[in-house]
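Complex record, two chains
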Amino acid sequence: MLSAAIIVFREALEAALIMGIIAAATRRLPKRNFWLLIGCAAGVAGSLIVASLTGQIAGLAEGVGQELFNAGILGLAAMMLAWHNIWMARHGKQLAQDARQLGQDVVSGSREMSTLALVIALAVLREGSESVLFLYGLIAGGEETRATVLGGATIGLLFGAMAGYGLYAGLLRIPARLFFSVTSGFILLLAAAMSSQAARFLVQADLLSSLANPLWNTSWLLDNSSLLGRLLHTIVGYEATPSGIQVVFYSATLLLILAGMHIFRYRPNTLASS
Amino acid sequence: MKILIALLFVLSVPAWAGDTEVVLVIHDHRFEPAEIRVPSGQKIKLLVHNQDSTPEEFESHELNREKLIAPGKKAVIFVGPLKAGRYPFYGEFHETTARGTLIAE
């Protein structure tokens, strides 16, 4: 029961933190809760499918199918987050001023929400499929009864969800004038973290050179297996022993998104004169 | 940045021939052998064969690797080149029994 609770908590924590950040960042978008739920439900359904296909996925591409699959999911999610931040740089101020005046933009806001629902679905799918496999193994291996396994899983899920909600509630307390910058900052780091993890999977598959392995080692300071290490790993992409290429992917993602946000930012003067 | 990208292209030449290949078996939720010695400074191809009827996740924070292995399947995991040292790994789904160490020397 305890092992089920611990593993499900670890996996749920990652997905819940990502969801907490996205829920806060999209607080003013129309139909937010509807899209969050859709993303979550799609992710759960996807987990079951992916878990049942694990053997097949792993066997693809000469045994590195799983790495390609994970890197693909992370890369796609990072791109969606990048798109969101650039979109918000353009529309965030309008949303904050008066949502009713947006008119046509409500449609675009809803489309925006659906992209983020996809990010949530992908996060839930990645973490969920691991949980499903683990729980299946516990039950199939006859190590524990179905009831204790599911009981443990529920407890793990609840604690994970509470952590995600905690982050969300904390973000909502940020003063209005800082809110947009802080949530954009979180999304930015989340995208960079996903991009760096995608690079790690490509190195693991031997499709990308690690450049330096590890580039540095800060496990004496904060280990990735500790709770804080895990939290920071998900939120800002902390790695105690990153490879050089991960740092390259991380920094490049940060710079590209910042550049995009700057280029497409909202300019009230030019809009007013046109 | 440009230098880094250039470096990337130079260094991402496909794996040089003759990677060291090491076979690791998961049996009864244990790694066999539990201790593997590999040469340092070389890329290692770990071939992990899960002989159990349940899935396992190979995980190592020190090696910065994680991979799910379905029951009865073999998985390929590339690690290194490593500096000399000890690199513990474990099976996340059976953390109490599935433990091992990779020793680079």
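Note: DSSP finds ten helices and no strands in chain A.
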